[in-house]
Write a structure and sequence with these properties.
The complex is a heterodimer. Chain A is α/β, with parallel strands linked by helices. Chain A contains 8 helices and 11 strands. The radius of gyration of chain A is 20 Å and the shape is elongated. In chain B, 59% of the residues lie in helices and 12% in strands. Classes of the chains: A alpha/beta, B alpha+beta.
Chain lengths: 224, 338
């Protein structure tokens, strides 16, 4: 299990990010005392650090620099500062990536996964699969497997299925699905979404899954 | 100093001399017992006039050099500072110099305090913008937990508008000392546009507007962050005024002479009478009044910042049909390309 050290002073954001990361199988720790970020970092042996820049005592740049003196751990800055100088500063202080606030947990997660993949031996431990009622979705090669039968998905189909599986049992509106696709820079319109949805259903049927995705008229789709 | 104004200044002295001569000559000529020969009287008059002439000449020369210094001070010297004033020649001059210095120092203190206020205000806005982004981030993250899209969708739109206005506040306060924070470097234009569309996605989707992004993978040289703001203003504007279920067409063109980006929406359009004024600060026009919630700041800022980047924005429109904004890039290397 990969350990993430989250240095963020806003308690609500901290909680929400923590929960999300835990859902995806990361172990998360937050410093108890913002004076002793470095000490807690050392104790925790983190694989990755998420570092806010505006902190109560010293700022995130300060701690990043301290961490860099003793470790090569990947650091992602989280900040509402968007100035060019801040970005340059972040990179100079040893940051590997920069996520500007406001961010969605999707983006944050994608960046974390990418960075962990680059830094550590990939194959193990990040949860690379989603499973629901026997259907296994492989997150790294966009394939689905059901009772030994395998099918490849396109990027859009994969995105839709991931979203539905992550929110199983809940109705997702078409707008919501579209927003998720747009987040991946696939700016689909209504018709394209319908086409993608139909193709996805056909692929599910071809490996023996009928009515795996249910349409709720006027509301959206859900996975029972 | 010219002779004429000098003589004019001395008019009372002339009258005084004239009066003296009149009294002397009158006394000599009218009193029968006063014995003086005529040529002696004429000599006396000539002598007196000579003395007056030399007195004036000396006075004029003295003033001439003083005025020359004053003119130099006023017209040639760049910095007007009381200590650089020519040496006073009379008590009056000294007093005027003192008054000038007093006024100068008072104004200086006032300007300093205003500048200080301005700087503090900018710092406040800067801090405020960053502070408000924390609750906005938290709201976005919270909303991800929401189940019903009936509330979530519209709420996302509103939040995205808040974000938009917050960005305006930040860039408005920064627009004047823009030079402190910009880096011109090449970036891919299509990448910038994709990021902006992504940012505005909830508005696009809510209004069922499709972006037609027809921009090739092309590099332009500008500041990414400021360009992001400028183009976002244009796209946000297009989204606001275009018809639901329509499109926003984004195209890029390059000719031998210029390079430009066009953003075209199909909606209410802009009245011909409003068109020349849309980049004015605070101008809301017909659309702003009709559709409400127009601050008249977005386009003003986009235009102002574009100019600072050496770019310009042009707008054309047919009311009820389309609006097209064209952003011309600064053409740096055109001459060397074939």
């Amino acid at each position: 299990m990969y350990r993430i050290f989250l240095v963020e002073d806003d308690p609500l954001i901290c909680d929400l990010v923590c929960e999300n990361l835990k859902k995806w199988g990361f172990e998360v720790q937050v410093p108890q005392n913002f004076e002793q970020v470095l000490e807690e970092f050392i104790k925790f042996h983190a694989h990755l650090v998420l570092m806010d820049i505006n902190l109560p005592s010293y700022d995130g740049f300060f701690f990043a620099e301290k961490i860099r003196q003793i470790s090569n751990v990947p650091i992602i800055f989280l900040s509402s500062r968007t100035g060019n100088m801040d970005m340059v500063m972040a990179m100079n202080m040893g940051g590997d990536d920069f996520v500007t606030k406001p961010f969605s947990s999707e983006i944050l997660l994608a960046k974390i996964r990418a960075l962990i993949r680059r830094t550590y031996d990939y194959a193990n431990n990040i949860s690379e699969f989603l499973e629901h009622k026997g259907l296994i979705l492989n997150l790294s090669d966009y394939s689905i497997t059901f009772e030994g039968q395998k099918e490849e998905l396109t990027k859009n189909e994969f995105r839709i299925l991931t979203l539905l599986m992550k929110n199983k049992g809940e109705i997702l509106s078409r707008d919501e699905i579209m927003r998720a696709l747009w987040e991946d820079e696939s700016f689909v319109d209504d018709n394209t979404l319908t086409v993608n949805m139909n193709r996805l259903r056909k692929k599910l049927q071809s490996i023996g899954l009928y009515d795996y995705i249910v349409t709720k008229k006027g509301e959206g789709y859900y996975m029972p | 100093m010219k002779l004429k104004p000098f003589l004019k200044d001395k008019r009372h002295f002339f009258i005084f001399v004239l009066l003296l001569l009149l009294i002397i000559n009158g006394l000599c000529l009218l009193d029968e017992h006063f014995q003086i020969q005529l040529h002696n009287l004429l000599y006396l008059n000539a002598l007196l006039l000579m003395l007056v002439f030399f007195y004036l000449l000396f006075g004029y020369l003295k003033r001439y050099f003083y005025f020359k210094d004053l003119h130099y001070y006023l017209n040639v010297q760049k910095e007007i500072h009381p200590h650089a004033l020519p040496k006073p020649q009379t008590e009056e001059h000294a007093l005027f110099n003192l008054i000038f210095e007093t006024v100068y120092l008072k104004n200086l203190a006032q300007i300093r305090s205003l500048e200080e206020n301005q700087r503090e205000y900018e710092e406040f806005i800067d801090g405020w913008v960053h502070a408000v982004k924390t609750p906005i981030t938290a709201s976005y993250l919270l909303m991800e937990e929401m189940k019903s899209d009936k509330i979530k969708g519209p709420l996302l739109n509103e939040l995205s508008k808040i974000e938009h206005y917050v960005a305006q506040a930040l860039y408005y306060s920064k627009a004047d000392d823009f030079s402190k924070d910009f880096i011109i470097q090449p970036f891919y234009l299509d990448e910038l546009l994709r990021k902006i569309i992504k940012k505005e996605s909830s508005l696009f989707i809510a209004k069922h507007i499709q972006p037609l992004l027809m921009v090739p993978k092309v590099e332009v040289a500008s500041d990414f962050k400021w360009m992001f703001f400028i183009v976002d203003q244009l796209i946000h504007n297009a989204l606001k005024y275009s018809n639901p279920n329509s499109q926003i067409k984004i195209t890029y063109q390059k000719t031998d002479f210029e390079e430009y980006l066009m953003i075209e929406d199909y909606g209410v359009g802009i009245h011909a009478s409003d068109l020349p004024r849309i980049f004015e600060k605070g101008f809301t026009g017909n659309n702003g009044r009709k559709y409400g919630k127009s601050t008249g700041i977005g386009l003003y800022l986009a235009d102002k910042l574009s100019k600072k980047l050496g770019q310009r924005i042009q707008a054309e429109s047919i009311p009820g049909d389309y609006t097209r904004f064209t952003l011309y890039f600064a053409h740096l290397s055109g001459y060397y390309l074939d």
